[in-house]
Amino acid sequence: MGEHNRLINRDHRHGHRSRLRERFNKAGRESLADYEMLELLLTYPIPRRDTKKLSKDLINHFGSFAAVLDQPRKRLLEIKGIGPETATFLIAIRASMVRYFEQHAENADTISTPEDIAKFVKLHIGANPRECLLLFCLNDANKIVHHVIVIEGTVDRAPFYPREIMKSALDHNATKIIMVHNHPSGESAPSENDHRITAQLGNIAAEFSIKLLDHLIATPRQVFSLKTGRLL
User: Fold this and answer.
1) Which CATH superfamily is domain 112-225 in?
2) Could you tell me which residues come within 8 angstroms of residue 181 by beta carbon, excluding any fewer than 6 positions away?
3) Domain boundaries, the chain
């Protein structure tokens, strides 16, 4: 009887996964709730266990689908049902997303609005637990020629070194730059210090005939543009 029930459960699980994949293949991501999308992903590193409950537990614990993918390996491994292979898989999913938007931004014809790089910025540093400063170097045609994290700090502060920023810009013959830093607190509004370093960097860059196009502040869910907010 026990073996019979096990086979029934296995067949039910297999049928559920097949229906989930079929729905996704026919109607795309809009046809799946967040927990179902995560459940679908988890079926690949966890092929022989029910992943529906685990996907719901993960979203309930961390708060959202995006927050699950934002977690470092250590936090993921604290969850019952997540082993080393599954943690690696989830981290690789997010890393792939970053790579996608990174190359999309690099290959774009031009950068004309903050939205052009907002997705990449949110993924790349928005969820970083430490404050860091990301620099985009652009040419006359507004095409990204280089991007790099030039400074990484602590959970609530990143040091500001204009020399490092300008060295990177000059090394790549940039005529324009976009400065981005994250707020691990999740609050995207600029601080007084943010206003100060924006003005300082703008003045220094101008001495080298380089224009500071924008200063973006990133969180996992939002990117604030000082230019759009008319603060630059």
Assistant:
1) Cytidine Deaminase, domain 2 (3.40.140.10)
2) 125, 131, 132, 133, 134, 158, 194, 215, 216, 217, 218
3) 2-97, 112-225
CB 136 within 8 A of CB 178: yes
Distances (CA, A) of 228 to 107, 177, 198, 222: 24, 16, 14, 14
Are the C-beta atoms of 133 and 158 separated by less than 8 Å? yes
Poorest-pLDDT segment among 59-63, 131-135, 183-187: 183-187
Sign of CA dihedral 19, 21, 22, 28: positive
- Residue where the block lists tokens 């995006």: 66
205 CB burial (10 A radius; 0-12, 13-18, 19+) = buried
**Can you tell me which residue has the tokens 């691990």?**
184
| Entry pTM | 0.62
Express each pLDDT in 9-30 by its tens digit. Answer: 454 456 777 888 999 999 888 8
